[in-house]
Amino acid sequence: DSHNQYERVGADVTMKCGSMDWDAAVTWTANGTDIDESHLNGSYLILKNVDLTQSGQYYCYESSSWHLKYQTYLRVGTPPKEPVLMCRSNNYPKGFYCSWHLPTPTYIPNSFNISVIHGTREMVCEKDVFPKNRCHVRYLQVFSTVKYKVTLTVTNALGKDSTTLTFDEFAIVKPDPPEGVVAKPVPNNPRRLEVSWQNPSSWPDPESFPLKFFLRYRPLILDQWQHVELSDGTSHTITDAYAGKEYIIQVAAKENDIGTWSDWSVAVHATPWTEEPKHLTTEAQLTETTSASTSSFMPPPTTKICDKGAVVGSGAVAVCWTAGLVLAAYGVLFI
Amino acid sequence: MAAAGSPSATLRRRDLCSRGIRLAGKMRSDVVDLLDAYVEQQGLDASASVAAVEGVPAAAAERWDEQTGTQRLLENLAAYRAFRALLGQMLEEQQEQLGEADAALGRALAAVLLQVSAFAYHLEELLRLESRGPPSEEGAGPPPLPHLSLFERKLRGLGVLRELAQWAVRSARDLRQLAKPSPGSSLAPSPADSP
Q: How far apart are CA A324 and CA A312, in angstroms?
């Protein structure tokens, strides 16, 4: 009967060919390939400093008859290191979940055991079907000042390790990000954007546990965010947007008094309303202006740095750097 | 629905709830500030674990979302009456201390005590609307304090304030439950309240 044999990476492994004598003539195979005699000590197979590639099915045959005398499935791996554990309540006051993972793979099967203690009471953490390394606890009590202690032990054939988290009920409350964030331009308002969103669907009782929100926005071309904190409502109008610039907008949520801010929502993009697209006809407009030989010169609107009012008259020295070169060129024409 | 009787009672109830919610919010914020000042002034470790203190009502509630409105009001009222007495005791002890910082702490304690009293009043009014009326306060004082060392008294004070901060969070949410226009907010148990 085949069985699993677990060995640590780097270990020296000696396999006996079942009940065969040391001096019996045997042939060993690994994953279907004959093993060279240099690895044998009599009928014993010696594997020194095993690595992961040596995992596999090993057979030992009596050389003369080719009778199978021994088989084993070698699994090379490592004992588990301290697991990483986190617990969070995104559905307060219903309960919380804990999820975990190993910092490095062990390459062999692991089992996890979790215990949740609240004061003197042991609580049940029901394992989730998906994702696998997660379980959830239903609160039996809320508004308690007694801490929770969660211990996770990971065990495999080569060893075990554990980690413990201790926390207050409120400390792990963190809602999911707001959903359905939508940002729209406001007609006839070149500096406004209307943003709306919904409470995360996982938050069970927003009436009794209202959320407050944090909005952040910036034009794509700048790195600095603007922030607005909103104590109620699920909409906000941005009134200081730069005209014509595309914006990126995100929202986060937090219970009013309890816990921490959610992650940022999915980002949405929006550009404030602009008038009839003058800015699309750059070259054509420039040509028209010069041929009309008017004394005022409008720099191309793509020149971001200047206001319209900064440049006046033909031949005048322009304040604006970029437009100045163009102006100087046309100025020469008009003098 | 037992108490929703007259429109004016409903309005009064809603008004008391929303004022109560705001008061609870302010109270929580002030208690948190008071806790910080208390910990510093008393030379305590903010993360010190304090065992359940006798006579201090625990904010922890089992099956909180299934409670009836009446249960919520009665539990809250019993708690804030207890805190009124406990804070009164703490204030007396504090007033025996000399020093400016102690005086400032005393003033902060007094301010919170006032809010606790005001909140208790809100709860009594809500129960009166229930035509059930608040229970009497006979014999409702805190148990006589065993003789405690100065340090033990400080730890007890920490326990009182921590639990009060927790209550303030709970109470705002209790009142929000009460203010909901649904069977869950009815002040008398109804068949609709299933476990």
A: 11
Domain of residue A150 covers 84-167
- Using pLDDT thresholds of 50, 70 and 90, give the confidence band for residue A280: low
Do A112 and A163 fall within a single domain?
Answer: yes
| Residues B31/B165, Cβ–Cβ less than 8 Å | yes
- Chain A residues in contact with B169 (beta carbon < 8 A): 143, 170, 257-258
Residue A174 maps to a domain:
no
Per-residue pLDDT at B131 exceeds 80: no
**A181 phi and psi, to 5 degrees?**
-70, 130
- Put simply, whether B72 touches A (Cβ < 8 Å) is no
Domain end residue (candidates: A139, A167, A195):
A167
Residue A299 lies in a domain: no
Burial environment of residue B19 by CB neighbours within 10 A (0 to 12, 13 to 18, 19 or more): middle
What ipTM was predicted for this assembly?
0.86
Q: How large is the average pLDDT for residues A153-181?
A: 97
Domain count across chain A: 3
Partners of A94 in beta bridges = none
- Which among B65, B162, B173 is the nearest to A145, CB-wise? B162
Domain co-membership, A216 together with A261: yes
pTM score of the predicted model: 0.80
